[in-house]
Amino acid sequence: MLLRALAAAVRAVAAILTLGDIVRQERPGPASREAAPAPPAPDARASALVAGALLVSIAATIAFGAAYALGAQTQLLAGTSGVSLAALAVAFIVWGQRLLQQEQITEERAPEPSPEEARRGAEEALARGEREISRRGALGWLLAGALGSLGIAALFPVRSLGPGPDRLLFHTKWRAGAPLVGIDGKPIRAADLLIGSVATVFPEGYVGDPSSQALLIRVEPGLLELPPAQLAGAPQGFVAYSKICTHAGCPVGLYRARTHELVCPCHQSTFDVLAGARPVFGPATRPLPQLPLRLGADGRLRALGDFTEPVGPGFWGMP
Amino acid sequence: MIGHLVLWLDDRLGAASFLRKAMRKAFPDHWAFMLGEVALYSYLALLGSGIYLTFFYTASGDHIVYHGTYRPLDGVPMSEAYASILRISFDVPAGLLIRQFHHWAALVFAAAISVHLLRIFFTGAFRRPREINWLIGVTLLLLAMAIGFTGYSLPDDLLSGTGLRIAYSILLSIPVVGTWSAFLLFGGVYPGADILRRFLILHIFLLQALIAALIGVHLFLIWHQKHTQFRGPGRTERNVVGSPLWPNYTMKSIGLALVIFSVLALLGGLAQINPVWLYGPYEAWQASSPAQPDWYLGWAEGALRLWPAWEIRLFGRLVANPFFPSVLFPVVFFLVLYLWPWIERWITGDARPHHLLDRARDCPWRSAVGAWAVAFGIALTLAGSNDVIANLLGVPVEIVTVYFRVMLGIAPILAAVLTYFVCHGLQERDRQPERRRIRAIVRVNARGGYEEETLPTPDSPAPEPGGGESGTGS
Q1: Percent of chain B with pLDDT over 90
Q2: Around B349, how many Cα atoms within 13 Å sit in the side-chain half-sphere?
C-alpha cells in the first residue's frame, strides 16, 4: 500500500518534471523500433520556456552572490541558490524533452558468455601458468607461506590501536573512603539532599569520569528492600547506583520519584530503586551495580569501596 | 573544437570507435530507473559539501571553554569538535546552509539507495547476470549507513554522543572478540582516546573511498551489461530500447541532478536539521530525551528497544542482550539479502539470464517476501520512536512497547498475505481484457451538448438504445 502510494508520488513528480513524457514513453508506443525520428516541430513555446528559465536562473544566481556578499540569512541563501538550481533544472528538462528530437533506439545485446573457443582459451591460459608454477612444488608452498606470514604480520600493528580490555572494565575510580562530590565538584552532604531527590555524583577528583558516574538517591529509610549486606551500604535511606545503564550504556537519567523507578531515556529500561535497582521493564537484564556508602560524622557521604559489580553493558568476560 | 578534441584523443587512445558507440547507447526510460541516479547525485552533493566542511571541522575531543557568537552557550566547556561545529553554523558565511545541505543529502542518499534496492528487488533485476551488482548494491547500503553514522557522530553533541555510547555497547556485546574490537576501535574504555579523529578518517577517507570505488564498479557493470527494461512491443531479452545517451538521456539526467541539488539547497536553508546547539555538548553523564538516530538507523534503534530482557550464558561467559537485536539480527538479515539471488534461484530453479523485468505482480510470492521485509522495517523504525509515540498518544511507553512487540509479528505477515493476493488479483485483471473494454463513447455534438453511445458488453448482451442527450449547450 505504502509502496504503491510511494510509486504514485514518484510517478507524479516524474510527470511534473518531464511534462509527462517519461510516463508516456513507458506505455509501449507503436514505433519503438529504430524508427526514423520525425523532424522536430518548431516549438516556440518550449524555447520561450527554456529562455525564461535560464533568465530566472541567472537572476537567482546573481541574487545569491549579492546575498552572500551582504552576509544575508541562511534562508535567503537557500532560497536564491535553490531557485537558481531549480530554474536550471527546468531549462535542461524542457530542452531535453521538447527541443531535442525524441527517438527510441534499439541496441542488440551480446549474450554474456563468450564464444566457446574464447572460454577454452582463457581456461587453458590460466592452467598453463598454474602448471608452470606448481611444477616447482616445494617452492610454491614456500612462497605461499612467506606471503601468508607477511600478511599476518601486517595485522600486528592493529594491536596498537588501543589497550587490552583486561581489568579496565571491572574497575572505576571509586575507592574506599572516596568522598562523593556533585557535578560542580562540591562535596555532597547528607543535609543537602531531601527525601525523594536525586543527584549525579562522582568520586572527589574525578568529576565527569564516564565510568564512575553514579546516582545518589534519598528515599524513606524504611522503604528499602535490600539484603542486609547491601542495606549496610545505604545509610539512612541514601542509596547510590551506577548511572550507566546495564543494557546499552546510556546514562539512566530519569527518576520517577513517586514509584521510585529509574528510567533510561534511550531504550526505556526501568529499574526499581527500592529493590536494589532490579530491572522491571525494558531490555536491561542486570540491576544497576550499587555503590556502597557510609555517612561520616561530619555529615559527608563517602564510598565504602568500588561498585559491587562491573558497571555498564554486558560483555563476554563479565562474571 | 569538439571535433579536434575527439581527433586528438583518438590519435592517442583510439577512442573514436568507443565514443561513436557510447554516444548512441540506449537507456530505457522509466521513472523507477531514476532512483539509482537520485542516489548517485545525492552522493555527489555529499562529496562537494563534505569537502567544504572538512576545511572548518576540528576532530578533537580536547575541552575548551566556549566564548563565541552563540551567546546561550557562552562559558560552557565543550570539545573543540563541538565548538568548530558551532563556528560552522554561526560564523562561517553560508556554513549553516552547507552543513544542513550535507545532512539532508545524507538522508536522501540513504533513502534513494533503499528505494532503489526495493525497485531492483520487486522487479527481479538482481537475477542472472546481475548478481554482482546486487552484491555491490547491498554493500553500498551498508556503507551508506556506516558513513552516515560516523558523520553524524562527528559534532560531538549530546545526541550523537549517546549514539556513540550505544555503538560501543553493541560492539562490547559480541562474543569472544567484542571487548577487544570495542577497545581497539575506541582506543580504550569508553569514550576512548581519540574516537573523533578515527571517525573522521573513517568518514572522509576509508568509507568514502570504498563507496566511490564501488559506485564506479556499479556504474561500469550497468554500462557493460546494459540496463534492464520492462516488457513492451519490440523489447526482447536480446535487445535494449531507450533514449540515446547523447544528447537526450544526458539532458534529462542533468535535469534530474539539478532538481536534487535544488531540493537539497532549499531544505538545507529552510528546514532545520540536527540543531546541535540546542542539544548541547556531549557529557558522558547526560542524555537527552527523546533521542532518535537518523531515519536509516531507526530500525536498529527499534530492535534494541523491542528485544526483551533476555540474554544467555555460554560456556560460563555472557552473550549480552544487545548482541541479539543489534548484531545477530542484522547479520542474518543482510546475509539473506546478499544471498537473495541464489535463494530465489534455488526456490524457482530458474537459472536463465533475465534482461526483461518482472512487474511486482508477476511474481506474487517474491513481492510478498518483499512486503514482509518492508513492513518489518517500518515497524522496527516506528518502534525506535516508542517514547515519542507514547507522548503523542498520552499512553505509558510500556504499553506502546508491548504493542509493537506484538505487531512486529503480525503486521509483516498481514502485509505479505495482502500483497500476495493483490498481486494475484492484478494478474487476474490482466487476463480479462474485456473488463477494461470501452463501455461507452461520449461525444460533443454540434449544439455543444453531449451524446453517449453505450457499447455492448459481455455482461449486458442487449445493448441499450444509445443517443441519450445529457448536458445542454447555452
Answers
A1: 84
A2: 0
